[in-house]
Design brief:
Blueprint (H helix, E strand, L loop, with lengths): L16 H7 L12 H13 L4 H7 L7 E3 L8 H10 L4 E3 L3 E2 H6 L4 H5 L8 E6 L3 H11 L6 E6 L4 H6 L10 H13 L5 E6 L8 H14 L4 E5 L10 H4 L7 H10 L4 E5 L5 H9 L4 E4 L1 H5 L1 H5 L2 H5 L9 H15 L10 H4 L8 H8 L1
Parallel strand pairs: 1-2, 1-9, 2-4, 3-4, 4-5, 5-6, 6-7, 7-8, 8-9
Helix pairs in contact: 1-13, 4-17, 7-9, 9-10, 17-19
Keywords: Flavoprotein, FMN, NADP, Nucleotide-binding, Oxidoreductase, RNA-binding, tRNA processing, tRNA-binding
EC number: 1.3.1.-
Pfam families: Dus
Length: 365
């Protein structure tokens, strides 16, 4: 492991945003006007991110990922992303993680796995895997679907993924391979690439080890954007759900990365449950914020404030009832289109914890 003797957390001089939120939860407004601060966020993001020349035009069509919705298995599917985009025009959306092997072996049925409506842009494809040839082929096959970024999963602690699959968060233990994988992915696409990871795995949870991972991946590949889930993963003894709450959040690791890798871009993830908290993180210097389950369970309360409060855009004026009407029109248009009554109404209406349009109506009210 590379010894990063110059890297230290310097916690004594650090004020993590979560302490601000817990002590003074009402100090931040939900309706922040489009001012110099908001403009500066967008400008500074593009200055910080190093994009390939051929990527610049495609990436600059959208505002930067100051706010994104985390990839969540069986949750951030095509239907949810359609609903999310009706609510927010600027939040970046992620697919569920797709195994590279699935993409390669389903070449005759790719629309089912990779297809989406153009209205979902900006949208990121997250892939996972541990075989370079499959990662290369999967990325190549995905090019036809015009995703705005390819993200590599190095953070999932599920036993099916990190255990039997030997990828996900387990890959953090092999940063050299991740660097090679990112080089292969980048070589087979013309869009930016990124990595989503934790701050550590089991006993490999020191700040030096995290720096070793970031340094090697960014040195061995064109990767310049890392999404950091600010808690480590425990591979044995606890469930994926417990892995989202039991290991303590260490935001100081994230903010130390901003200081120690000034040429890279980092998005913070983990424990952020509202636009108020997202804005607090951005004010503390975060390059971007990723929100997971809050954006899924409470899309109106969360995504409904993103465009105005995070991006400073004028309100669209769309109402919850209008969103429901548009989503019902979408549902009517896709029911049964894949044959064998798939997708069915239960699949289309499964947003949040609800499985019917009646519940969906209650959900928004």
């Amino acid at each position: 492991m590379v010894k990063f003797s110059a890297y230290s957390l310097m916690i004594s001089s650090f004020t993590p945003f979560h302490s601000i939120i817990l002590k003074t939860p009402r100090r931040f407004s939900r309706n922040i006007p489009f001012n110099h601060s908001t403009k500066s966020r967008v400008a500074s993001y593009y200055q910080n991110v190093e994009l390939h020349t051929e990527d610049m035009m495609g990436a600059s069509r959208y505002l930067p990922p100051l706010f994104s919705v985390a990839p969540m298995m069986e949750w951030t599917d095509n239907h949810y992303r359609t609903l999310a985009r009706l609510i927010s025009k600027h939040a970046w959306l992620y697919t569920e993680m797709l195994a590279a092997e699935t993409i390669v072996y389903q070449q005759g049925n790719l629309d089912k796995f990779l297809g989406y409506s153009p209205e979902q842009h900006p949208v990121v494809l997250q892939i996972g895997g541990s075989k370079l040839e499959n990662l290369a082929k999967a990325t190549e096959l995905a090019n036809a679907y015009n995703y705005d970024e390819i993200n590599f999963n190095c953070g999932c602690p599920s036993p099916k993924v990190a255990g039997h699959g030997c990828f996900g968060v387990r890959l953090m233990l092999d940063p050299k391979f991740v660097g090679e994988a990112m080089s292969v992915i980048a070589a087979n696409t013309n869009v930016p690439v990124s990595v989503k990871c934790r701050i550590g795995v089991d006993d490999h949870d020191s700040y030096n080890e995290l720096c070793d991972f970031i340094y090697k991946v960014s040195s061995l590949s064109p990767t310049r954007h890392f999404i950091i889930h600010s808690r480590k993963a425990l591979l044995n003894g606890i469930s994926p759900a417990d892995n989202r709450r039991i290991p303590p959040l260490k935001y100081e690791f994230y903010y130390a990365l901003l200081r120690d890798f000034p040429d890279l871009t980092f998005t913070i993830n983990g424990g952020i449950n509202s636009v108020v908290e997202a804005n607090a993180a951005l004010r503390e210097g975060a390059h971007g914020v990723m929100v997971g389950r809050a954006a899924y369970h409470y899309p109106w309360q969360t995504l409904g404030h993103v465009d105005t409060a995070i991006y400073g855009a004028p309100s669209s004026g769309i109402t919850r009832r209008e969103i429901l009407q548009r989503y019902q029109e979408y549902g009517d248009s896709v029911l049964g289109k894949d044959g064998n009554n798939r997708p069915n109404i239960r699949e289309v209406a499964k947003v949040g914890s609800f499985v019917s349009f009646t519940s969906l109506l209650h959900f928004f009210c």
